[in-house]
Design brief:
About 45% of the residues lie in helices and about 15% in strands. The protein is α/β, with parallel strands linked by helices and about 280 residues long. The strands form two sheets. A four-stranded antiparallel β-sheet has the order 2-3-1-4. The chain has a four-stranded parallel β-sheet with strand order 7-6-5-8. A hairpin with a 2-residue loop joins β2 and β3. α4 packs parallel to α6, α5 runs antiparallel to α6 and α7 packs parallel to α8.
Length: about 280
């Protein structure tokens, strides 16, 4: 791919070689702020940043690899070097296509990453940060990701962490008669709630902002929405728990689960499954 002037350089801090704390360290600023900071380098003509709960990546177009390395290093200066994967021109192109196909995801073939990559592309383009090089690279990656899902079976079955959590729960308990609790009303919580709604007998959605929980519950027949202050009693009445919040602090800790177990003889540690992110 040689359209435009310059070469693409990138970095990736992702689940394959970094823990969640390190990934969060690489996501201390918004993706738009990262793009803005990269464009401040005189050598950078194009830039894009992709941040999800399991990865932080950025790509720039410069005249030389050294210019690209120097610009990107300024973004990850506080991240341990062994957690940063540097990508050259061809590596960046190959990696973007693998990411869009879901080959670099925790859940192979998951669909969310394709939309997240598209949002990163559109966000950078709205900032006039996308030129001919990244335009072709990103649109090609998105096209390949779409083809992978329509022409292969890569996204058959479990396609997200939320649905994977439900599949894991189904291995241990009979969900047909189970009471399920989803903590968090974001994208992952919504996916988990939808997956559990098709399996569990009862479903409760808890969120700090109750209207957000009510919005999801309103789309699921029989689902109930509660605030986080009602978590202790909800935990005691639940057979399976999926927690997917964006909170910086712990929402459910061991003491809360122990208290819930004491209040309900039906709960044991093996029956409370928590997916924290």
């Amino acid at each position: 791919m040689t359209v435009g002037y310059g070469i693409i350089s990138g970095f990736s801090v992702a689940h394959g070689h970094a823990d969640l704390d390190t990934i969060e360290l690489a996501c201390t600023t918004r993706d738009t702020s990262v793009v803005e900071s990269l464009l401040e380098h005189a050598s950078v003509t194009e830039a894009v940043c992709l941040q999800t709960c399991n990865r932080s990546e950025a790509y720039v177009v410069t005249e030389s690899p050294k210019d690209g390395h120097d610009a990107l290093s300024s973004v990850v200066r506080d991240v341990p070097s062994d957690a940063v994967r540097e990508l050259g021109h061809e590596e960046s192109l190959r990696h973007l296509m693998r990411v869009s196909c879901g080959l670099e995801s925790i859940v192979l073939g998951e669909d969310q990453i394709l939309g997240q990559l598209r949002e990163a592309y559109l966000s950078a383009r709205s900032m006039d940060a996308i030129g001919p090089m990244l335009e072709e690279a990103l649109t090609k990656a998105l096209h390949v990701g779409e083809r992978a899902r329509t022409e292969t079976e890569i996204n058959e079955g479990v396609v997200s962490l939320g649905s994977a959590a439900v599949r894991l729960a189904a291995r241990d308990i009979d969900l047909d008669d189970a009471s399920a609790l989803v903590v968090g009303a974001g994208e992952m919580g919504t996916i988990a709630a939808s997956s559990l709604a098709a399996e569990a007998d009862q479903l409760v959605i808890a969120n700090r902002t109750i209207p957000h929980a009510e919005h999801i519950a309103g789309t699921i027949d029989g689902a109930e929405a509660i605030g986080l202050e009602a978590l202790p009693s909800a935990l005691a009445e639940s057979d399976v728990v999926v927690s997917a919040t964006g909170s910086d602090s712990t929402v459910i800790d061991s003491s809360m689960l122990e208290e819930a177990a004491q209040r309900s003889s039906s709960i044991s540690p093996s029956r409370a499954i928590s997916l924290l992110m």
